[in-house]
Fold this protein.
Amino acid sequence: MWLMSFDALPAPALEEIAVAASASATLQTVTPLSTPSPTHGVVQHWLKTDPAQTYYLYVPPGISGNAPVLVVVHGVSRNAEEQARRFRRLARQYGVVLVAPLFPTDRFADYQRLGLTGQGERSDQALQAIVAEARQQTGVTGRLYLFGYSGGGQFVHRYAMAHPEQVAAVAIGAAGWYTFIDPQLRFPRGLKISRRTGVRFRPKRFLRIPMAVFVGEHDIRRGKDRPELRQTGRVDAQQGLTRLERGNRWIDAMRAAARDRGLDTPYHYEVLPHAAHSFATSMKRGKLGVRVFDFLFGPPSRIAS
């Protein structure tokens, strides 16, 4: 299997626009390893069991076999490589393996809903195959953490709900809308889902997972300017009009549901200063990366030790 290695950070990008691979990219081969092996930058891989499926991987130097794995999931612009690059410095500082899957539109039109609505392939199953290969390639066995921005934020919270036994904690960046704990509402607004999917939502399990939502203070635009934001009467009435309002309502609902079941799970909502709906701006001006790593992992020394 062949892969590409990219070392330099991308040039500043417009809203979630994927950047091109560096012209100085080098080719190298990957073989399975029994101990963690650092990459020299963000490396593009093609899944052995599905060569059409690609993902990006960063392995910091000097990590142990029980290092945590952080999956970062793109929005509808499919900027997987940019996300991996922008998180790389923090991953190195914390000793965290980064995995950034790419869900192409032609295969995963409904990746935000895990492919459970019958539109496209199952993105949750694709991620499971990617993570399994990344662990096999690096030898890392640490716990799995999730981050997603915009459409990726939709994906990661629904993945944790569907597969709670796999996930340690979740950080969500400015998701457009959410799945609420309502067994009477059909998925993805609620938990009612066809048995044909093979998925069962068990609130007592996924409500044990710490989750946080981060939204830019200026992320309030609607209408034709934001066609990717779900704007229907039912979603507006249930969740609010803007990403700010929807994230806050969802965190409040999750916290209340956990307490009703006797759980004191950490749920966190935070507004990012100087940011609208832009991954790059949220990282640069809103310090999204630092806030995400602090929520998921605490001080860097806790991981490094």
User: Anything to note?
Assistant: The domain at 35-304 is CATH 3.40.50.1820 (Rossmann fold).
